[in-house]
Structure formats: C-alpha cells, structure tokens
Amino acid sequence: MRTLLFTILLVASLPAGAVDLRLRGAVTDIDSRTPLNDVLVRVYRNGVKEQAFYTGQSGSYSVDLERGGDYIIRFSLPGLITKCYAVDTHGSEWQGDRREVPVDVEMTLFEQIPSLDLSFFDMPMGLARFCPTTGYLKWDKGYEDHIRPEVDRLMAEVRLRKEVVRNASAGRPVSLVERH
After folding, report:
1. How much of the chain is helix, strand and coil, in % rounded to 5?
2. Which residues make Cβ contacts (< 8 Å) with residue 35, sequence separation at least 6?
3. Facing residues of 111 across strands?
4. How is the chain split into domains, by residue range?
5. Over the stretch 2-34, which tens digit does the pLDDT of each residue have?
6. Considering only the top CATH level, what class is 16-144?
C-alpha cells in the first residue's frame, strides 16, 4: 500500500504535459466559405514534419504547439492551391505555467488556375508570434501589409480567369482584358 501511494504521489508531481498553444479552425472554400473535407494538414516544427492529418466533414482542424519552436502549418487538397501560415513560440515563460491558449484561425483555399503561376502562395500567408509569458498570439501586420499587394493582384487575376471560363462555358465572348 505504501509503494502504491508513493507511486501515485510521484506521478502526480511530474510536470504536466499540457500544450501551450492550440490552433483550431476550419478550412473553407474562399468563395462559398463552405468547409472543405479531407484537407491534408501538415505541421512542421523547426523545419521537420511533426504531424500530418486530414480534416473531417466540417473542415475542422486542431493543432497543439509547444513553446520554443518555429512552426509552419500547411494546408493542401488536390486541385486547390496549398497555403500555410507560420507561428513562432519562442520566449520566456513563467516557471510552472502550463496554460493552454486556444486561438481560432480560418484557412481559405481556392482552385488552381492552369497557366497561372500561383507559387507565391507557397509562402506563409501570415506570421504570428506567441508570447508564452502573456499567452498572447500576435500577427505580424507589417508582413501582411508587405504581401497584401501581391495577394490582391493574384486574386484579381484568379477572379478574372474564372470569369473568362464561366463566360466561355455560357457561350459569351471571352476576354482576358481586365475591366476597371
């Protein structure tokens, strides 16, 4: 009995293995905002793939990130553009603090367009920094402002190409000249 009590106390005194940051959300179609099923979600920590899984019927995902890493969370589905975002979880922490901070992040995907170079979307579409001491996740606005013009330009081209395809399939004149 004494050994059992000692074992229980020893296990109870071990540091908890709780996660530090839980990213969760849904992967949706950029136009309809409907959930996308069977999206491959890959999580890389410090350049090494740590896990991979598929979204279910609701397009939902949940990823636990520990402190002290540089993470890339990548989303892909055949026929759609692969996109990702990055999270840095380095920083000091309060000793013994094992809080879990949940944050919702939606990812939108869209279809590939033949003959249109969309490799720009291989880069992270967002950079975030998690501060373990405060528990706050902050997105890098400067990075977003820097990539926004190219994202907007490419998305305008995607919309134009989709419109051309719709017009062609409806028997209307086809034009790649952008309207202003």
Report:
1. 25, 35, 40
2. 26, 27, 28, 55, 57, 58, 59, 60
3. 80
4. 16-144
5. 443 333 333 333 334 434 899 999 999 999 999
6. mainly beta
